[in-house]
Specification:
about 150 residues; mainly alpha; Multidrug-efflux Transporter Regulator, Chain: A, Domain 2; three-stranded antiparallel β-sheet; about 50% helix; about 5% strand; elongated; disordered C terminus
Length: about 150
C-alpha cells in the first residue's frame, strides 16, 4: 500500500472530483506535499478527512466550521478514534437541534404547509397579530428556536 496518494488516486478512492480536492486544499481543509516535479501527494489520512468534509457538508455545516473542526485534529499523525470522538462531541448539540428540526418538518410539514385548510382561522401558522414576532425573523414556527412548540 502506497503511503501517499496522487490526486487521481484520492479522487478515485473518495469519489470526489480532483477539482473539488484542489478547492478543499485551497480552503485549507486538506494538505498535500509536492514531488520534485510539482505533483501533489496526499497522505492516506486525507481519505478520512475528505469523507468527513463530505458528511459535514451534507448535514449543513459550512466550510469554515469544517476547517475549524479539522484544525483541532493533530498534525503529523493520523487522528485516533479519540480525536474523532472529541471533534464529534463538540457538534452534538447542533446536530441534535438539526435532527429535531428535520423530524418536525418530516412529521408536520405536510399538515402545516400542505394541509389545504384554506382557513386562516384554523391555520396554525397564520400568526394573527404577529404574536411570533418576539421569536425573531424568519419562519419561527417551522425553523426557529423551539420550533413546533405550542403547535399541534
Amino acid at each position: 500500500m502506497e503511503p501517499e496518494l496522487t490526486i487521481g488516486a484520492l479522487s478515485a478512492r473518495s469519489g470526489v472530483a480532483a477539482s473539488a480536492l484542489r478547492f478543499y486544499e485551497r480552503r485549507r481543509l486538506i494538505q498535500s506535499s509536492r514531488t520534485a516535479g510539482g505533483q501533489r501527494r496526499y497522505p492516506r489520512s486525507a481519505l478520512r478527512r475528505v469523507a468527513f468534509i463530505r458528511i459535514a457538508q451534507q448535514v449543513g455545516l459550512s466550510l469554515d466550521e469544517i476547517r475549524a473542526a479539522l484544525a483541532s485534529l493533530p498534525e503529523g499523525r493520523t487522528p485516533t478514534a479519540d480525536d474523532w470522538r472529541h471533534l464529534a462531541s463538540s457538534w452534538r448539540p447542533r446536530l441534535d437541534r438539526r435532527i429535531a428540526l428535520l423530524q418536525g418538518l418530516r412529521d408536520r410539514l405536510d399538515t402545516c404547509i400542505g394541509c389545504g385548510c384554506l382557513s386562516l382561522g384554523l391555520c396554525q401558522l397564520a400568526n394573527p397579530g404577529d404574536v411570533a414576532a418576539h421569536r425573531g425573523p424568519g419562519p419561527q414556527y417551522l425553523a426557529g428556536e423551539g420550533a413546533w412548540a405550542g403547535h399541534g
